[in-house]
Design brief:
Layout: H1 2-18, H2 30-33, E1 51-60, E2 79-82, E3 85-93, E4 103-111, E5 114-120, E6 132-134, E7 140-144, E8 161-165, E9 175-177, E10 194-198, E11 203-210, E12 214-220, E13 226-233, E14 236-237, E15 244-245, E16 248-256, E17 259-266, H3 273-283, E18 293-299, E19 311-315, E20 322-330, E21 336-343, H4 347-353, E22 360-369, E23 372-383, E24 390-398, E25 404-413, E26 419-428, E27 438-439, E28 446-451, E29 463-470, E30 476-483
Length: about 475
């Protein structure tokens, strides 16, 4: 019996070594980590078996009731990595103040003893969360948009700023950088801004919306100069009842070798009068925003300021559906990879306007080259009449050798009626086909989150890092670390 016991222990240790148990020998999630599965065929990449290495609370927050929240800037990121250190920005509600500008930014670092609050804004007030960007090896940059109004003033002008922190002394006072703009744009607390970094190139770009007409942008080069600035004018909605600019919001923006890539969703008041009037009967409001058309543009060299004509990547305009950008990655060959979530119809309007339309929820993927869609694919779909596993929150994860993964969240019920709430990950192969969809064995699945994306300057990695809201987390912002192989 003693010999059998020793043999069993040896087998367990060997299995843990093969399947990625933690160096410390802790077996916390061993059942998921050590399951024996057939290996890949010759020439295929290793099978995907995600290993959860950490699930941690970073901070708690209270709703500010100002229309934003800690994840409101989800097109950018509030999580970055520099070497062995992970930094996160947070949003702290100032309970004694009234909306809209009743928040301040916080800066956190994950150290040997867990998450530590490094600094918080002691002088400014803002409405929205403050995204991060990094250069390889540092510095660390935080995009702030402090109001210029008196306390408890509902709304008013704001001043975009970039706070620069030294990784060697992140607790020290940051240096304040003021982007340069064309003229004097009327910035406000509703910035809808995008902040992206080229980590290897050590360069930054900041875009900030002005009303419903355009976004102002400012580019900072590796020498620390605001080397270019300009306007990104929105696409024109000639087909609407009253032609108008199509404001594009919540974009994913990438900066790579001075090329800028921008993909966002239409965000205007309902442009069709018959739908707007019908919605008012339901909501009692004169306004309702569309979020139905996905647009893409790019500038091959931002120092020229010349963006290419807008390309409409996807639309759910005919049946009053919904679209939300997920992520964007530029491959080594210049191919742009896009990810988004979509819903086919607004069910409130179905009976009156499109009674034969069927509902579906999908996560979609496309490749764009030279402004043309060269591949389009539905990765996950929950169609009416079938299982209701609704996908959302898709994000890319790029490895050092260029493998591309997608992490996403699923909620609903499977074909057996079982409730589902989990994160999954799938690899996108070189030919664009998806691999096996694998559950991430979280104790606390995340329903919405940032990642340490290359768009924020973090390096490609085999480790997926997430900062976000647990599906059942209340007012908690959490961090998770997942080794993909």
């Amino acid at each position: 019996m003693r010999n059998l016991t020793v043999a069993f222990v040896v087998l367990v240790i060997l299995a843990a070594a093969v399947h990625g148990a933690e160096p410390s020998g802790k077996l916390g999630l061993a059942p998921q980590r050590t399951s024996l599965v057939p290996g890949p065929a010759a020439g295929e990449p290793p099978r995907l078996r995600p290993v959860v290495e950490a699930e941690e609370e970073v901070y708690r927050y209270e709703p500010a009731d100002n229309g934003a929240g800690p994840l409101w800037c989800h097109g950018s990121t509030c999580l970055v990595r520099i070497g062995d250190e992970v930094f996160a920005s947070g949003l702290d509600t100032l309970k004694e103040l009234k909306p809209l500008n009743n928040c301040r930014w916080t800066l956190w670092c994950r150290g040997p003893k867990g998450w530590e609050l490094l600094r918080k804004d002691e002088s400014g007030r803002t409405r929205e969360p403050c995204p991060l960007g990094v250069s390889s090896g540092g510095p660390l940059f935080l995009s702030a948009n402090p109001t210029l109004t008196a306390p408890n003033t509902y709304s008013g002008p704001a001043r975009p700023e970039i706070m620069e922190f030294s990784p060697a002394d992140p607790k020290g006072p940051p240096k304040t950088l003021l982007p340069e703009w064309e003229g004097k744009p009327p910035f406000s607390e509703h910035s809808y801004r995008s902040f992206a970094a080229d980590g290897a190139g050590r360069e930054l770009i900041l875009l900030q919306n002005i009303g419903y007409t355009h976004a102002e942008w400012s580019f900072r080069d590796k020498e620390g100069r605001w080397a270019a600035k300009g306007k990104l004018v929105w696409p024109w909605g000639a087909e609407y009842d009253k032609p108008e600019p199509i404001r594009v919001c919540y974009p994913n923006v990438a900066l790579a070798n001075r090329a800028v890539y921008f993909c966002g969703v239409s965000d205007i008041i309902e442009p069709y009068r018959k739908w707007r009037e019908y919605k008012k009967k339901i909501t009692g409001r004169d306004w309702d925003y569309d979020f139905r058309r996905l647009f893409f543009t790019w500038c091959p060299d931002i120092t020229t300021g010349k963006f290419q004509p807008w390309v409409e990547i996807a639309s759910r305009d005919r049946t009053c559906g919904w679209i939300m950008p997920g992520d964007l990655w530029v491959g080594p060959d210049g191919t742009v990879h896009l990810l988004w979530s979509e819903r086919a119809i607004d069910e409130r309007l179905r009976k009156e306007f499109f009674p034969d339309a069927k509902q579906s929820h999908a996560m979609s993927y496309a490749r764009v080259r030279d402004g043309k869609v060269v591949l389009r694919r539905t990765l996950v779909e929950a169609a009416e009449g079938g299982p209701s596993e609704v996908p959302s929150g898709g994000r890319f994860q790029v490895t050092p050798e260029g493998r591309l993964f997608v992490v996403y969240y699923v909620a609903g019920r499977d074909s057996s009626g079982r409730g589902v709430s989990e994160n999954r990950v799938v690899e996108i192969r070189a030919d664009g086909t998806p691999g096996e969809h694998v559950r991430v064995p979280f104790v606390h699945p995340m329903s919405s989150y940032f990642t340490a994306t290359v768009r924020g300057g973090s390096p490609p990695s085999d480790v997926l890092e997430m900062l976000g809201q647990r599906a059942r987390g209340g007012g908690t912002i959490s961090y998770a670390r997942v080794r993909l192989r």
